[in-house]
Specification:
- It is a single chain.
- By secondary structure, the protein is mostly beta strands.
- Helices cover 3% and strands 42% of the residues.
Length: 151
């Protein structure tokens, strides 16, 4: 597969603080831009900008800090927003299908919420807590909290 360069003047959009990218079955590429735009940029298989998905904000179809994306069945898109602590499922035509909030159990061991979530199967997700980022210091081992949720 040939390399494709996106996020340049030639591709039609500049990116800032990229936090993830996925490729759809037809070769299109979605890139999560967590900088000042808080959006997902969609590029053709040739790297040309096609459209912007989402915008900054807390509402449906809006994002604050996308930290993980994955492609689902029929090129649906799963987007975890670390800033809003929620998972948004977008249809293949980029409409909001479902939204789920993910929070680790309130047992005092999980500070700061989840960093990212990963799809286990159709309705099950596992989320990684922020302890590793908050507690890590040189020469120490940080313990993660993992939350498993059903959507």
């Amino acid at each position: 597969m040939p390399s494709v360069l996106v996020g340049t003047d030639a591709s039609g959009v500049l990116l800032n603080r990229v936090s993830g990218a996925v490729r759809f079955a037809d070769g299109r590429i979605a890139v999560a831009d967590g900088g000042t735009s808080s959006r997902i940029s969609l590029f053709s298989h040739e790297g040309i900008f096609e459209e912007e998905i989402g915008r900054p904000g807390p509402g449906p179809g809006e994002f604050r800090w996308v930290s993980h994306m994955s492609v689902g069945p029929e090129d649906s898109l799963y987007v975890f927003d670390r800033g809003l602590q929620r998972l948004t499922v977008l249809t293949p035509d980029h409409r909001v299908a479902r939204i789920a909030r993910f929070r680790p159990p309130a047992n005092g061991s999980s500070r700061g919420g989840l960093i990212r979530v990963f799809r286990l199967e159709e309705e099950a997700w596992v989320g990684q807590g922020m302890e590793s980022m908050l507690q890590a210091s040189p020469g120490t081992f940080a313990q993660d909290t993992v939350a498993v949720g059903l959507m």
